[in-house]
Amino acid sequence: MSDAVLEVRDLRIEFGARTAVDGVDFAVRPGEVLGIIGESGSGKSSVALAALRMLPATGRVTGGAVLLRGTDIAALSENELRDLRGGEIGLVFQDPMSSLNPMLSIGRHLDEALRAHGKGSAAERRTRATELLELVGIPDPERRLRERPHRLSGGQRQRVMIALALAAEPAVLFADEPTTALDATTAVGVLALLKRVARELDTAVVLITHDIGVVAATCERVVVMRTGRVVEHGAVEDVLLRPQHPYTQGLLAAVPRLDTPLPKLSGMDRSTEPLLEVSGLSKTYRGRHGQRFTVLDDVSLSVRPGETLGIVGESGSGKSTLARAVAGAHAATAGALRFRGEELTTKRSAELRRAIQLVFQDPYASLHPRMRIGTALEEPLRAHGLRDRRARADRVVELLREVGLDPEVSRRRPAEFSGGQRQRIGIARALATEPDLLICDEPVSSLDVSVQARILDLLVELRERLGLTMLFISHDLAVVRQVSHRIAVLYSGSLMELGPAGALTARPLHPYTVTLLSAAPSPDPSADRRPEELLLRGEANGQPARGTGCPFANRCPIGPVVRDDRGICRDRRPELSEHEPGRFAACHFAGSLTRPMIEESA
Amino acid sequence: MTVVAVAVPAQRRTGVLRSARARVALGVVVVLGLAGAFAGLLSPEDPRAQTARLLTGPSGAHWLGTDELGRDLLSRVLHGIQVDLVVGVAGVAVAGLLGVLAAVLSARWAAADVVAQRVFDVLLAFPSLILAVAVAAVLGTGMVSITVAIVLSQAPICCRVVRAGLLAQRDRDYAVAARLSGVGPWRVLLRHLLPTALDALVVQLVLSLSTAVFLEGGMSFVGIGVRPPDPSLGNILQESVQYLTVRPSFVVGPLVAITALVLGFTVLGDALNNAARRGGSQA
Amino acid sequence: MLRYALRRTPSMLLTLFLASVAIFGLTRLVPGSTVTAIAGSNATPATIQAITRDLGLDRPLPEQYWRWLHGLLTGDLQRSAVLDQPIGQLIARGLGATVELTVAAAVLAALLAFALGVLGATSRRAFVRGAARSVMTFALAVPPYVSGTALIVVFGVLLPVFPVGGRISPLQDPELGWQYLVLPALCLALPVSAVLGRFLADGLDQAFTEDFTRTATALGVRRARLITVHALPNALPPVLTVAGIQLGNLLAGSAIVEALFAWPGVGQLLIQAITNHDYLLVQDLLLIAVTAFLVLQLLTDLGQAGLDQRTRLGGRS
């Protein structure tokens, strides 16, 4: 490919004795967005670091080359290398929080990037910094230049990162998982920005991600990597719609989608009393200076025996707070929880503790690093009165089998397991007490897609077999839709919409649900590209306008920001009310925004 | 459906003794520890026995020479090491126990925490040497007051280290998980939280030993610690300084012994600390 | 900033109050009391009673405590019965010498710490980094009475370039004054410079492993700027925190260094007072040491808060 600005030829990278990247080839043209997709351990990030000769000390390029306009970057001198870094190739990292220096202002960051490449006098650099912030869509750039990174929201920080990478007008921009740390509605804007950068600045953009939806929405071509090798390479439409390699096929099949038919879930018991009732639950924290943060605001819902209720929300929506309050990890500030009609507090009887169990999000953090798996699983058994050693050991074997692990592993410690295996152990521990209600707090969000699918299958299977009632919490509407009977949508601590999974995702009533659905990445590149930036203003910051109005008013695509006649959204808080049988929404204009309508407004 | 666990290759244990410095430090500490423990057997003479050969240099009979009262310096230094180690180990052990106890009670009951923190704030308001001086002012000179000074200055530090370790873990998912599965508060504290918190304490105890030797030396040096004729590294050093111009070799024995002890404990503590940090970052 | 200071002050005052009670209580528990120290061991009961009354030691303890505190606050210190001089004068004279020594040591420590810390973390040569770190470990571990003795042996006995004992005020004779100051100040500064230097080196090392340093490298920022502009601002705050405590240790360590170098400061005065059982003097000196230590800690916290505005805003994410 002669017009390629950057070409990677048969690249091979080793870390010690381990080959991380093995024979990777690709090229990228100006103005193009190329996706590199792979799960953890696929070596996709090493490629980006190798392109800047920034591999960690243990890593070495042992074969092939990275060519920038035909020049091998391995041949560059120290000085030329500095010109390459930032000057020719820009790099955007995953976590915009840790990637910006907390002690330096945004202006200083940009100034350093410009100065490193000799871009003009101090005054000129300042003007350029302002332009850069405008370019990446940060409002009020003059003020932002003076602020330090912690004042910015996650999406804004990532935009600053992009501005930094673009400061010296590089020909190539690598973005390594640029949206992984962001909420879906925020990510949409950042991806749109990357596309705009490619289009308007004629930059070659290489987008590295684990998320097929991100690739589908943004890239023209895609490279699929697995354990250091390229398994498939081609135009996005070809690879995602007609995958040739079994790995790509498997990956695509594992991605939860919103447009597939709903899975058949065994029926719940409609006749009896609800198993869990949440009424008017609120939780506020007091900040260091006495200011109050409301993380959960008057949430009411109920779960019937045998039912799975999905709870969806972005960061700061209060979904984990709700989960942990039900689990008894912390007390709510107001409101009540009832389990089989019995009041639930943090001080609960052994029987209630037994009956309600929690599966944690992070399988690395939720297991004691020192404790053998067997011991960890015995703990709840011992606590619930199983005194006999032998009986406990038998039960541990049974539990491990139940979650699909070899009972032999009970002597091992958590470090010896992969993430998926640890999550299985976490599930086994929750099941140890034979609970009636299993709360899953983002049980799959830290796992690779293929592992994610297997854990979801396991949870569904266990529920059917053991007759569990579940509270399933996730930020991912597509995941929740797969496993839930009903779905509750939380925004900034408030319940926005509640209804049957199928109806809610097919015909959402609340504009926020519509927004979430539109922002959800779809692996289908033929789906109409969404009207990204028109959709949402700002970001959920956990502290929206409180008091009288609707918490979503300031970001709502059909709210007062767009339509002057809708002052009511700011003045009066909409009640959660039943709009159709079994379908509730808290919106004055529920049902008036549907998906096709947004697309028109684009 | 059975998925057989495939072991992720176990990370190589990041040993404390990976660096040569740490190995040397451990060697020094062990040798001096043995020397102190068997000071009675190893000493050629009674450390208090005076002879007529005053302030002699090193010789076959007196490897380190004699002091101003004709006492054998090697014997005095060996016994001095013993005194330092006895005082140090006793003081640090008690400080560690008190620290753990206070930290566990603090982590269990908020009221205990308030009281313990206030008491320790007051103790920490005294720089360690000033605290030692204050103790000597009250208890008089001698090994007991040195030990008490070590306990009082190190117990708050030990408590803080353990308490910080306990608190840092209290809201970790694995601790919450243990509580939610019905494990009692004491068991969570002692079985789930304390073992990890004790890692940091081990490092602190070794560093406290070096502070202990430092304190003994300091107190005895200014005459408020172990008083002659009983030997301690501090008072031997102090005596030797008086005769620095007459017999410079006098200073070598105590100087080297104190330096080796303090340095040995410090380097060992650093190595433990680094090992713990490496282990921590991998976990 | 002011609000932060005001918020921290009550806690410090409480600690100070409790410490003063502790000091007062302890000095009254002492067996060989001031009275025997003045009267001698074979004094008559009548003499002892007279001295006790004279010193006010026959009053109830709360009253004695109150008089002590009142005296301190109004600057009305008693007379040292043992040395037969006004305590105020004794302390004032000693304090001048000690402050001079401490300030010199602090400046020296800061310079040494900066040089060693930056070298130990950022030198391109592993040998230089290792050497700087070894020097710091050594300087940290070796107690001042040992390093002081070594300094005396080297610069006083083997190559006599500096005087090894006594003090001449630099105000009287600047040229001679600093010569007397060099060895004790260096001796006092060594361990402190080592602690600070190590924190600085560790902080720089830490900063170099952070993602934001990777960002700066990826932007093509030069290594020198990487150190000065990007890493140092992050490495300094923890150094500052320790610096406050270390200054307190400097003050405390001066007791030994003063004894070694015959430096007539408050440290010597304190040791002397203890050996003389002069408890009225001891309690004043202890309280001064504690106050200085606490004030330094408060100042450090304030400096820290100023440097890191996030503390003021509440969150320290």
TrEMBL record, chain C:
Keywords, in A-Z order: Cell membrane, Membrane, Transmembrane, Transmembrane helix, Transport
Family in the record: Belongs to the binding-protein-dependent transport system permease family.
Membrane topology label: Multi-pass membrane protein
Single Gene Ontology BP annotation: transmembrane transport
Entry's transmembrane regions: 103-123, 135-158, 178-201, 279-299
Compartments (UniProt record): Cell membrane
Cellular component terms per the entry's GO annotation: plasma membrane
Ranges of residues in domain ABC transmembrane type-1: 95-300
Protein name: ABC transporter permease
Predominant subcellular localization, coarse grouping: membrane
InterPro entries in alphabetical order: BPD_transp_1_N, MetI-like, MetI-like_sf
Keyword Transmembrane: yes
